[in-house]
């Protein structure tokens, strides 16, 4: 999850200073409004890798806010007094009053991750604890506590190098740093910590209390992103809306924070070898046929999801998949706007009812992701609905995976220039005109909004059981081979 956190996120000093000037003004205005209303308390939970700058972030927020209304809550190993009470007692003891902001280091998330990484919780106990955590956080929201859950993301090797540079030979630190994971030692324990953190972020991101994963390699970007997230949280608290800031730390117009884009990291110039394409295609189709007709497939199901830009070539890719499947064992579902019958039911109903039997294949040309794409961008679903859709979709796909279904998801990406060329080609050919609608032209005007929604969608729903595959689709042949190769490799794994 959160593939966009691995993209370069850098702000120059000048960019940061301009954003900082505006952020400070907006943050103070929002802070005083929350303090005056006394309807909500704010808890900023600062988590992440040692070396990612947790302490620096807290200090920066103190610089930007009125510190009379801010408090730091820090938790380490429980004291004798705390051990004599339930584990959550110390967090309740320190709960901020309405109108105040608490900056929290070592929250209940840290305690749970630490116990899992040290092997003190097995998988079942950990999963149960995550469910308890979700219920507790929902109760806090209903009581007026707005949670901003931040994970400062940094590659583990980079974080370790930063910590080494901070230490003297005798172990002393050259400058203050928040170190919380020093007892998690050894490859197994660190791998268990990474897995547990991913699972926690995936399972406890709810519509009202999502995790915001903030890239932390560049301190300027990191601090501006956290400030922007806090501004969204304070604004929501002042307006009485659910505490659900955009999970990408996407910029408000005032802050000018650079917006991450997964598509920008793709090399859309990739092409297939024209001389070997036909043979590669046949080979991959044969492997797909063998995989879906093998005895082992009878107890499995295959669900293929195709999303992407208009005219990205979804239909052509689906056709090459279809050619390799027994026509009695697959069905293609072209997903359009929901009917009145479908609108009268939960949005996932029409997809549940079209799941294949074990041994069969369902191909979705567009899918349940419409809730967080077109419904979000076009305003058909309010923010609280599409925000809660991320964990709902993850739960849906997790259930499929646990029942033996393989979910393979593709986003086909093309450039704006290539899309325009394909639109013009469709207009010029009578047998292709039906593929082009006024909505296609209108959607081009919202390219940036769809790109932003797509990045957040992949970040939020690219789980270990059902990861997204981003397909460079300017060259249709390259895209078709990548789609088939991905399906085959997932089936053969």
UniProtKB/TrEMBL annotation:
SUPFAM superfamilies the UniProt entry points to: P-loop containing nucleoside triphosphate hydrolases
Boundaries of every Polyphosphate kinase-2-related domain copy: 13-235, 273-492
Keywords linked to the UniProt accession: ATP synthesis
Record keyword NAD present: no
Classification lineage: Bacteria, Pseudomonadati, Pseudomonadota, Alphaproteobacteria, Hyphomicrobiales
InterPro entries for the chain: P-loop_NTPase, PolyP_AMP_Tfrase, PPK2-related
Reaction catalyzed: [phosphate](n) + ATP = [phosphate](n+1) + ADP
Pfam name, any one: PPK2
Protein name: Polyphosphate:AMP phosphotransferase
Keyword Hydrolase: no
Annotated PANTHER family: POLYPHOSPHATE:AMP PHOSPHOTRANSFERASE, POLYPHOSPHATE:AMP PHOSPHOTRANSFERASE-RELATED
Naturally occurring in which organism (per UniProt): Methylocystis iwaonis
Domain of life: Bacteria
């Amino acid at each position: 999850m959160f593939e966009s956190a691995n993209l370069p996120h850098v702000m120059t000093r000048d960019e940061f200073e301009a954003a900082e000037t505006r952020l400070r003004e907006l943050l103070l205005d929002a802070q005083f409004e929350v303090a005056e209303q006394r309807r909500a308390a704010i808890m900023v939970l600062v988590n992440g890798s040692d070396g990612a700058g947790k302490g620096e972030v807290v200090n920066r927020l103190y610089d930007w806010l009125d510190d009379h209304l801010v408090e730091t809550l820090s938790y380490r190993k429980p004291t004798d007094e705390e051990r004599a009470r339930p584990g959550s007692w110390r967090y309740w003891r320190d709960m901020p009053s309405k109108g105040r902001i608490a900056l929290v280091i070592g929250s209940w998330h840290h305690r749970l991750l630490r116990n899992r990484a040290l092997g003190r919780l097995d998988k079942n106990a950990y999963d149960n604890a995550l469910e308890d955590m979700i219920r507790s956080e929902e109760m806090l929201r209903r009581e007026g506590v707005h949670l901003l859950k931040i994970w400062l993301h940094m590659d583990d090797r980079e974080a370790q190098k930063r910590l080494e540079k901070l230490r003297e030979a005798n172990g002393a630190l050259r400058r203050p740093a928040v170190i919380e994971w020093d007892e998690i030692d050894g490859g197994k324990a660190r791998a268990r910590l990474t897995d547990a953190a991913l699972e926690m972020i995936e399972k406890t991101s709810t519509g009202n209390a999502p995790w915001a994963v903030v890239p932390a390699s560049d301190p300027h970007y990191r601090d501006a992103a956290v400030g922007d997230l806090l501004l969204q949280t304070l604004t929501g608290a002042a307006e009485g809306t659910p505490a659900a800031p955009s999970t990408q730390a996407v910029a408000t117009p005032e802050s000018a924070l650079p917006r991450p884009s997964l598509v920008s990291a793709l090399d859309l110039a990739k092409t297939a070898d024209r001389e070997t394409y036909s043979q590669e295609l046949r080979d991959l189709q044969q492997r797909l046929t063998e995989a879906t007709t093998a005895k082992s497939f009878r107890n499995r199901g295959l669900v293929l999801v195709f999303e992407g830009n208009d005219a990205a070539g979804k239909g052509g890719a689906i056709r090459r998949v279809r050619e390799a499947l027994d026509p009695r064992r697959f069905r293609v579902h072209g997903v359009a706007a929901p009917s009145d019958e479908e609108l009268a039911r939960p949005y996932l109903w029409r997809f549940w009812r079209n799941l294949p039997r074990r041994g069969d294949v369902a191909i979705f040309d567009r899918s349940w992701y419409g809730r967080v794409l077109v419904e979000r961008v076009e305003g058909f679903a309010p923010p609280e609905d599409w925000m809660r859709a991320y964990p709902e979709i993850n739960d849906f796909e997790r259930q499929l995976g646990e029942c033996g279904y393989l979910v393979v998801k593709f986003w086909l990406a093309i450039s704006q220039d290539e899309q325009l060329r394909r639109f013009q080609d469709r207009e010029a050919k009578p047998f292709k005109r039906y593929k082009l609608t006024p909505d296609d032209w209108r959607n081009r005007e919202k390219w940036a909004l769809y790109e932003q929604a797509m990045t957040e969608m992949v970040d939020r729903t690219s789980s270990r059981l059902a990861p997204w595959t981003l397909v460079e689709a300017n060259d249709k042949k390259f895209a078709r081979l990548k789609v088939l190769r991905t399906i085959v490799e997932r089936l053969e794994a």
